[in-house]
Amino acid sequence: MLIGKTRVRKALLIQVCAAAFLVGLCAASVSAATIHNLQVNGTGTVTISSGACPSFSCATGPCFCFQYSGTIKGTGISSAMIALTEQEDTGTRGNTCAEAFGFGTLTEKNGDTVDLDLGIEQCDSFNATSSAFFADTSGTFNITGGTGKLANAAGGGGVNLTTGDVSSCGSGCTATATFFLDGGFTK
Predict the structure, then answer these.
(1) In CATH, what number is assigned to the domain containing residue 42?
(2) Claim to verify: residue 94 and residue 151 sit in the same structural domain
(3) Distance from C-alpha of 67 to C-alpha of 104, rounded to nearest angstrom
(4) CA-CA distance, 40 to 80, in Å (whole number)?
(5) Using CA atoms, how far apart are residues 119 and 30, in angstroms rounded to an integer?
(6) Which pTM does this prediction carry?
(7) Per-residue pLDDT tens digits for 4-17
(8) How many whole angstroms separate alpha carbon 104 and alpha carbon 77?
(9) Burial class of 54 by CB neighbour count within 10 A (0 to 12, 13 to 18, 19+)
(10) Are both 26 and 86 inside the same structural domain?
(11) Are 42 and 177 within 8 A, CB to CB?
(12) Nearest by Cα to 143 from 113, 105, 181, 115
């Protein structure tokens, strides 16, 4: 009878140890998947040119290439450079909006980067009082990776890009731009 109790105790001890081990693994994986807020904004410039952006082709009609650059700061990434490329396909234009897509990179001061894919819509607005013309882009971003401590970054959220007056652009110009990204990511 004593041998049977010893076996039961030994089996129970093995199960408890296995459960503790698994809980430890689960706790480690939960802490590794901590979601960090990402809420940044900033200013810079946008260069607009007619035609396809580098590495893209125009699908259904005339295209415009928007290349943004500037600085951002906020929660999740304290201070970084931003570089985004967006292509607007005017062949998909409704009333004042057209489908757009693109990619970008956030580069922290230490050189670590976060790579982004953009799924967006470009909408135009006109101020009749000042005859100013603005481009407002909003949609989503997906984090597709990075480098350094952000090499395994994943996540996403919302993005909004706004240009200054682009009424005199014609086939190309440079204007002011504002950036806002709001979402979350894991490292």
Answers:
(1) 2.40.350
(2) yes
(3) 10
(4) 9
(5) 29
(6) 0.73
(7) 433 333 333 343 33
(8) 15
(9) exposed
(10) no
(11) no
(12) 115
